[in-house]
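FAQ: What does the model actually see?

It sees only this:
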Amino acid sequence: MILDFGDVKLIDLPQRMRGFKNFISSWILQEENKALLVDVGPASTIPLLEENLKELEVEKVEYVLITHIHIDHAGGLGDFLTIHPEAKVVVSEKGKKHLVNPEALWKGSLKVLGKIAENYGKIKPVKESFFTNKVDFAGYDVEIVETPGHAPHHISFVVDDYLFLGEACGVHQPLKEDYYMRPATPPKFFFDVYLESIERLKEFGKKKAMFGHFGMRDDCREVLKEAENQIKLWVEVIEEMFGREKEEIKEELLKRDERFSRYRKLEDDVREREDIFISNAIEGISGYIAEKMGEKS
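And it is asked to produce this:
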């Protein structure tokens, strides 16, 4: 499915897993038969991505911008480049080595995600020659912003009036005349770095907020403020309930976080998917709090 947002289009990359719909995506800027992509998704959906590019009559992919190297955003890059060897790739320096030699990245994905990672597909290596630090595409101004709150190798991209967030502001799920949001804080989580990343993005004023998961919002200033308030609340609640069961913590967050409470509006299968990642987010914040407590003792 292709969603049209004017100059930018979103390619939906559903997985063959229960609830994994309207979740993983690739963004595309197109100039005639040439394209720039932001993230490519996992290996399992590269054939679907290619099918959609053909539908859009894209013949040449000039650039692929990778927000971060997690398997659901960049796991299919090696496969994609065998189809589009003309493409140049922009990724953080911290992430590059793990794409050149993805063995540790693959093992880490299996450890954290298990069967989900297996369904996403194994990560193939990318040759050094594909990487670049410069983007010159169809007159667009492209700026790289270091946003390591979600992961040390996370970057965001400002492209004219568009801010490609990856997971710098967590996960967004459009609903009918509404939306759901939650933080994306897998272990190892650093609260101050997450806040600094959001603060850095505020410098760009009003842009359209383009989420890695999933969709678009018109004003990134509202998104960034909401994401900031949400992560502060989650840290506060999890610190208050430290040591309690994750399900208890989730229920308290549903009571106190109005935006997160839209979880109840999600379809049953999507809630099942979200439960996996909510658990990871609580675990990440709990680890941060445990470390902070250790430093004080």
